[in-house]
Structure formats: structure tokens, C-alpha cells
Amino acid sequence: MSIDKIRKYLEEYSQLKSIHSLLYWDMETMMPKGAIEDRAKRLSYIQGKLHSHITGKKYKSLLDDLKNQKLKPLEKKLAKELLYDYEIQAVLPLKHVVELSHATAIANHEWAEARKNNDWKSFAPHLEKLINLKKTETKFYKAKKPYDALIKLHDREFDSARITGLFDELKTGLIKLRNKVEKEGSFVRVKDLKGPFAIDAQKAISEKVAALFGLPPEFSRLDISTHPFSINISPKDQRITTRYVTENIDSLSSTMHEVGHALYEHQLPSEWEGTPFQEAISLSVHESQSRFWENVVGRSREFSEFIHPEMVKTFPHAMKGIDEATLYKVFNKSVPGLIRVESPELYYNLHVIIRFEIEEAIFNGNIDVHDLPELWNDKYESYLGLRPKSYAEGILQDSHWASAAFGYFPTYTLGNLISGSLSRIMKEEMKNFDALIRKGDFAPIRSWLKENIHQHGRSISASDVVGKIQVKDYLSYLDKKFRS
Ligand SMILES: [Zn+2]
């Protein structure tokens, strides 16, 4: 059977990908700085091998053979997904793939240094190179608008027009809600917890919560990187990272976020190794999982009640006089800030909308890379009423552009919208949803996600789970959180 031959062939692909991921994880967490050139060479070498593996003659003839086979419905679906992936990869010349991979590794390294030193000038030429490479890439895809080609690499159900429609509706709803919450004041006037927060203690509570959410310590690691991320080495080897500062405990929510990603990867069906059925539906659905654990669970009233004693034990000084209800408000404190990953939910999507609009200006317009910081700052001033005073808290804060992940940002907000619908559906189906969180029993929630999403890989679509993606579930979720 051809489909079996393909699955065997893709197992090899999966192993090679695993080695690539491990080298990448090491580069971001452990590698000595001086090794960056060598590492960029090795990463791009393997990326080239990966590309050749799934665009070469041998693989093409295996795919062609499928057309003459009598396939069962699930196999038919798999064949369709395989062909979709093939067409995306096959249009890209090997030279482009290798060059982009090399440039990305170097840019990532330069970005981390630039962010540390608040040095936009040294990063700008690397960003410019990546933008030019991605502009070239959009030409291979022949999309109507260049930016659409990049969006589709992260979620093929979307293009910039559809996203603009959803984001406009969301923006209107968010502004109305924000005005009400600000007027009512109780989520605005609450004080922050006062540190310092010892890093060992932050690490301990992060690891505890990761294990409680169901990420088994024997199949995962939590390390430190400049920008938090999660990476799947193999289903039984999930790596997540966070970053610690002693002034706050934002590391906890960023860990919950990455655990959401890692749980998805860990619960994908291992019997479909190397195939699209062992991959997430889309990056929007991936972000719906991380945002779900971070916000729907981790920033809920019930979670504050559950985690309160542990917080008191871990941070006795900071938690003095803070009861469960206050802790809930601290976790949801709603004042705008400059950093996306630390943003309260009420403002978070504005950060994403800003990046979406800038990416649109880069790829559909023709903005010069040197004008980007000014554009960034202007948009922050107009959307959030704040103007960054440094590059590090402005345009250099996120690693996505240094990774050439243009078109990724919208998936955060799409993920939020999906997580809003998931929260509605789950609460309808699981009447004791809130009670489960209150007692720290997360297994039924994790199983629900496995059964309904994770175990299906790409054999289902987002609409099979939540129907048409819409704004109203998410707004009503936020309204309930901030106004009751
Ligand atoms: Zn994420």
C-alpha cells in the first residue's frame, strides 16, 4: 500500500525534524554565544535536507501513486493534507529555504543582543534581510496580496480581509467594554503584588502548575530564554521556556501559556508520526490552547482560589494581606502596558492588531524598515495611549520578526476568539467546570481537549470544534470576567 510507504517515508522526516528542533532549542537556551555561525550553518543544512526529503522525486512519485489507489475516507483526507503540504514546499527553491534558515538563526541571535542593549541599529539590517527574503517568498506563492500568502502559512482559513473584518468588530466591542471596566474601576485601582520574587520560588511554582495542568515532568523541561517559547522535540519530549525578573511573577502566566502549547503537542496521536495527523490544526488553534490555559483557566476566579494557599506559602512577604478575591484582581489588573506578553486580556488584542497592521504595511505596502520604530510608537500612542521610551519595550520586544514569522501575530487574537468559544462549549458540556478548577482537578479539562481537539491532529478543522470563528463568545467571556 502506497499510504503505508508514505508513512514510513515520513517517519524519517519526523526524526530529522526532531534533530533540527533540538538544535534550535539548544541555540535558544544553552548554546555559547560564539557558536552562532556554526549553529546557523548546521540548522540550515538540516532545513535543506528536510525540504529535499518532502519535495524530491521519490516523495513525489509516492504521492502520485496515491491517485491510483482505493483509499478509505480517513486515508483520503490524509492524502489531501499531504498534497497541500507538498504544494506549499515544492514551490520554494532549495537555495531560498537554506538562505532563509541561515539568516533567521543569525537574526535571532542578533535580536537577543539588540534587545538586551536597546540597540535597534544593529538589528535593523538583519530584519531588512528577512523582510526581503519573505517578500521574495510571497512571489513563489502567487497570492493576490503578498501578506495573505504569509498569513496562510500559519492559518490557511484566513486572509487579511477576513482578519480585518473580525478585528474591526473586536476592536469596537473591546473599546466599549474597556470604558465600562475603567469607569467601574475595581480592576484598575487594585495594587500589584510587591516583590522581590525569588527566582527559585518562581521556578518552583511554575513547575508545580505545569505538572498540575498535566504536563508530565518525565516528558518535559522548563528552561530560560530571552523570549518564552515551546518546542516539540518529539511527543514525549516537550521543551518550554520562560523568563524571570524579580520585580513580578509574570513568569507564571507565561509558563501556563507555553504549557498549553506543549499539552497539545504531547497529546497528538503518536500512531500518525510524521504525518499531518500528528500536527496541530493551525497556529490559531495552537494559540487557542495556550491562551485557554493561561487565561480561561489560569486567570479565572476559581484558579485564584485554588492557587492562593500555594502563593502564600511561596511568597509570604508579597502575599501579606492579599485574599483570594484580591489575588484574582491582581492577576487581571487592567491597565494598559507596553509589553504584549504581560498585557491584561482587555488590552492584549490591541497589541496584536498593531503588529497585524504593521505587517500589512510592510508586505502589502512598501514601508522602509528604518521607519518601523516610529510607526510602532505612533500606533502604541494612538491605541494604548502609551509611547515606548526604548526600543526594548517597543519594536524589539518580540522575537517573531527575528524568526521571520511574519503572519504569525494574528493567530494570537484568532486563538483568543477560539478560546472564548471553547470556554462556552466546555462550560455547557461540563457543568462542574468551575468547581474542577477550584479544587485543582485539571484532568477532565485536559481530557476534553484531547478528545475533541488534540487526538485528531489535522484530520479535523477548527470549525469542527467551535463552528464559525466569531467575536461574540470571546466578548461575553471577557464581560463575565471583568463585570461580575
Ligand atoms: Zn503561544
What does this structure look like?
It is built from 20 helices and three strands. The protein has a three-stranded mixed β-sheet with strand order 1-3-2. Helices cover 64% and strands 3% of the residues. It starts with a helix and ends with a helix. The mean pLDDT is 96. Helix 9 (199-213) packs parallel to helix 10 (250-266) and helix 16 (410-429) crosses helix 20 (472-483). The protein folds into two domains: 2-118; 160-481, Neurolysin, domain 3, CATH 1.10.1370. The protein has helices spanning 2-29, 36-53, 57-66, 73-90, 94-117, 120-141, 146-154, 160-184, 199-213, 250-266, 283-297, 301-314, 324-331, 345-363, 372-384, 410-429, 433-438, 443-452, 462-466, 472-483; strands spanning 220-224, 230-234, 237-242. The protein is mainly α. It is globular. The structure holds zinc ion.
